[in-house]
Design brief:
By secondary structure, the chain is an alpha+beta fold. It has helices spanning about 15-30, 70-95, 125, 150-160; strands at about 1-5, 35-45, 50-55, 60-70, 110-115, 140-150, 165-170, 175-180, 190. The strands form two sheets. Strands 5-6-7-8-9 form a five-stranded mixed β-sheet. It has a four-stranded mixed β-sheet with strand order 1-2-3-4. Helix 4 links the parallel strand 6 (about 140-150) and strand 7.
Length: about 200
Amino acid sequence: MHIQVNGKQIDVGDALRGHVEDRFVAAVGKYAENPIDSTVTFSRDRHEIVCDALAHLSTGMIAKAKGRATDPYAAAESACERLEKQLRRYKRRLKDHHLKRREEPIPAAMANGYVLQSAPQAEAEAEEYVEPEGLDPLVIAEMRHQVQTLTVGEAVMAMEFADEPFLLFNNNSHGGLNVVFRRPDGNIGWIDPANLPEG
């Protein structure tokens, strides 16, 4: 497994890089079969060091975890423990539910994503804000996203792995677009337009 250790406005020395590589390779390798690569990024948030970890698995799943501490080693340890917990839970679910492991990577299609400018929330921001003409919002960034073909159970796991509030996916049973999302009550919501009752 290849691991990349980066720093955003923070210097990552050889000792920290070596520690992180050893720790994350052991953690990911223990619970994930054939991990492809991992990226660990350190950054500052006021007085804390933030460690963002991302692991790409051979199945196409992506696991993300974040750790915070005043020390970079402690932040890395926190992120690594969270990543281990996710991978351990994923592996246990597969075993407990006797799910067949995917031999091939998860099929995915590419989709365009956009970041739209929002109306200012504070008065200070309002001075520089230019109201767009018409109802079309101003696009401030474009990116590419993968829309994977998953079962509903896999989609829930992928959403939890990625630590996202929702996940758009192609439903494996009928190929239509579906969404799973975390509800305010802590449960998971599932939107399946293909299964709308007729009438």
